[in-house]
Amino acid sequence: MSKISLKGTIDTINKSRTKGMMSTQIRVDDILQISKIDHRINRDLSYNRLPGLLKYFDKAESEIGIFLPALVFSFRENPIVKYNRATSTLELEEDDKLIVIDGQHRIKAMEKYVEKNKLNKDEQINFVSNFLTAQIYFGLSEEDERKLFSDINSNARRVSMSLVTQYDSRDIMNLLVQELHRTTSILKVVQIELNKSKILRPTNQAFSTGARFKTFISYLLFGKKTPNRKDEELIKSQYDEISSFLSKFFTMFFSVLPEVPGDVVKYVLGHEPIQNAIALYLNATIMSSDNEVIVWKEDWETETEQLEAIDWSVKNPEWNRWAITVNPVKGSYKGFVENITLEVTEFIIDKVG
């Protein structure tokens, strides 16, 4: 049975004689062999998080690669008998286990990614040969492990998705949003907030965040919330053409909407389900269905102009069937729950059809 060698120095924690920690690099295939999830320590898996991780792993072989935060483990056995001081190496057998403190979703997604690529041996081998950073704790009780898990997950802060949209160039949709924001002046007028993850209504009158704008584009081009790998390849192959079209589209699109569409005190247009419904309507009316190329109809401008016929005012009683009253500190306004998108799409079709 082969050993798994992990290099690193074991440092004591708060000068404790019984507790320590080491940082090391560990291969993906080794992680899959010796990691163990103890549900007395971790919360239940959220399986809805796995598809996004699988899609992210697809970019592992891109020029810029991917980044994963350090995995955190607890080794419950005595490390002294496993640790070679001369070489600063922890020598583990395949039946030794590292208890997962933080990273269970990443590890479960790795398992699924390897399974998904079981017929593509080259890609599978390349993936499992990658190294990840790991922190391994020693001498922790189960109560210590639970507290460490709680501390990590209570104090960690996710990067704003709009900041990801602005800076993560691995995603072709992020690049497209950045390009459009840089070259299409109307987007600065209506305000697409690339630096914020959330818009605080009603004081902020920006149309959307960068992340929501990316979703709008996906609904417009593909009729779905996020593009798949094939969709992204189509964007890459037609990038200049699509960028030019979208710049023209948004210039016209916002010209037929009220001057400040993100003003939720006056209009319903600042709400995500309404925006997504509009994008779905436009996908059905101005985009041509073709799985091999992204095509828009010649009369897309005429179809887009039809949106001007709709009364987007909050005073329009037709919106009341979906409206809820939101009561922030600075004043109440009409809001909308997320699951009304398809109903609003049908409403738009009926109004302009």
Structural class by secondary-structure content: alpha+beta
Major sheet size, sense and barrel closure: 6 strands, mixed
How far apart lie the N and C ends?
70 Å
Spell the H/E element sequence: EEEHEHEEEEHHEHHHHEEHHHHEEHEEH
Report low-confidence residues grouped into runs of 5 or more: none
How would you explain this protein's 3D organization?
By secondary structure, this protein is an alpha+beta fold. It has two domains: 4-155, no CATH class; 161-352, no CATH class. Helices cover 42% and strands 16% of the residues. The strands form five sheets. The protein has a six-stranded mixed beta sheet. A three-stranded antiparallel beta sheet has the order 1-7-6, with no helix packed on it. A hairpin with a 6-residue loop joins strand 12 and strand 13. It starts with a strand and ends with a helix. InterPro entries: DGQHR-contain_dom, DNA_S_mod_DndB. It comes from Paenibacillus amylolyticus. This is DNA sulfur modification protein DndB. Pfam families: DndB (PF14072).
